[in-house]
Design a protein that fits this description.
Layout (H helix, E strand, L loop, with lengths): L10 H9 L16 E8 L2 H10 L5 E7 L4 H9 L2 E4 L10 H7 L3 E6 L10 H17 L4 E6 L3 H5 L4 H16 L3 E5 L2 E2 H7 L3 E3 L2 E8 L5 E4 L5 H9 L1 H4 L3 E3 L3 E3 L1 H11 L6 E7 L1 H6 L5 H12 L6 H7 L6 H7 L1 H7 L7
Parallel strand pairs: 1-2, 1-4, 2-3, 4-5, 5-6, 6-11, 7-10, 9-13
Antiparallel strand pairs: 8-9, 10-12
Helix pairs in contact: 1-14, 2-9, 5-7, 11-15
């Protein structure tokens, strides 16, 4: 399967998989009473946190969670039952190979997400780290690798996007190594949208500015909903190994984005609107967020359409964008620096 192809599992197959009461065990594992160790790389980011939380307490697995630095979340996950390890990797300096070998010891399966924690690594460094992790999986013959990926924008459109292209290159390398791999292709995240599309106050109005004109919709999801999907994939390697599955929870356009914000904050009697620019107008102003423009252009015009039912089958408790905005109203009030006019 090439990098650009997606799931060969039908919606009906995914739904049936999610309904199975007993996990699948391969013949060489049936006689083993030892729990399999799952290494979760990328803590305390939202995806890895969701995965570790979903796996803790599973009778099949022990969870080894890898943090990129010491932080309060280390103790919290240890209390949950996660074996927490710290592997510090920054933009500079050598990758700690000996430390990596130690944390990979006796591991059955690995979940990998790269660059999911601010500050983000440079794309070249993200690729270096991701490929090194893949090589470690290959060398130690890890039985199941699940990689959280996004579409490879440059290979599809010819436009560079460092936030996506590093992950695309890592996926390409992993598939070339022949790893026992499951790739989960994610769309834009809710967090990225609200953290990037921050309104400015103009009198009594809150205005989303510097947005490239587009009336097309695009796929979005809460990355924290990925945990149950990964848990299911580790439980059923016979179904998921060798598959690339595109996930989505909701489809919105820019107008719906603003409408959902307006609806949640309607009691504040604030005025919300957005100003759109043509692509040429957008390019003239170097202050505009070119990464956001590239991503919106890609997801509106080039990204493969995904079936919302796929994610609903794998995790029926997902959060729509409107539910996300409602649940994060206090955080968004602070993020947007809102002034209540009531």
């Amino acid at each position: 399967m090439s990098v650009g192809q997606e799931a060969s599992l039908s919606f009906e197959e995914l739904l049936e998989t999610s309904r199975l009461s007993q996990p699948y065990l391969t013949l060489d594992e049936e006689n083993s009473l030892m729990k399999k160790i799952i290494l979760v790389w990328g803590l305390p980011g939202p995806q890895a946190s969701s995965v570790a939380t979903a796996l803790v307490g599973n009778p099949l697995f022990n969870v080894r969670g890898i943090f990129n630095k010491e932080c309060p979340e280390v103790a919290r996950f240890q209390e949950m039952g996660v074996q927490a390890e710290v592997v510090e990797i920054s933009d500079k300096g050598p990758i700690p190979i000996i430390k990596l070998k130690n944390v990979f010891r006796d591991v059955y399966g690995v979940f990998i997400v790269t660059n999911d924690i601010e500050p983000l690594l440079a794309m070249r460094r993200e690729m270096e780290v991701g490929v090194k992790l893949a090589e470690m999986c290959e060398r130690l013959k890890i039985k199941h690798v699940i990689y959280s990926a996004v579409d490879f924008v440059f290979r599809i459109t010819g436009n560079r996007c460092s936030r996506y292209d590093g992950k695309g290159e890592i996926e390409y390398q992993m598939k070339g190594m022949g790893l026992p791999l499951t790739v989960l292709k994610l769309p834009l995240s809710y967090d990225y949208l609200v953290n990037t599309l921050i309104p400015t106050r103009q009198g009594s109005d809150y205005v989303f500015t510097g947005i490239v004109d587009s009336k097309l919709d695009f796929d979005v999801m809460n990355y924290s909903d990925i945990g149950p999907v990964v848990k299911l994939a580790f439980e059923r390697p016979n179904i998921f190994i060798g598959k690339t599955i595109g996930l989505t929870v909701d489809r919105i356009d820019l107008n719906k984005f603003v409408q959902q914000i307006r609806e949640v904050f309607k009691e504040s009697k604030l005025t919300w609107r957005y100003e759109q620019l043509s692509w040429k107008e957008y390019q003239r102003d170097k202050k505009n967020n070119r990464e956001l423009a590239t991503l919106l252009d890609f997801h509106c015009n080039y990204a493969p359409l995904r079936d919302v039912r796929t994610m609903q089958a794998l995790n029926p408790h997902v959060q729509t964008f409107s539910e996300y905005v409602s649940a994060n109203q206090k955080r968004l009030t602070k993020l947007f620096k809102l002034v209540n006019t009531t």
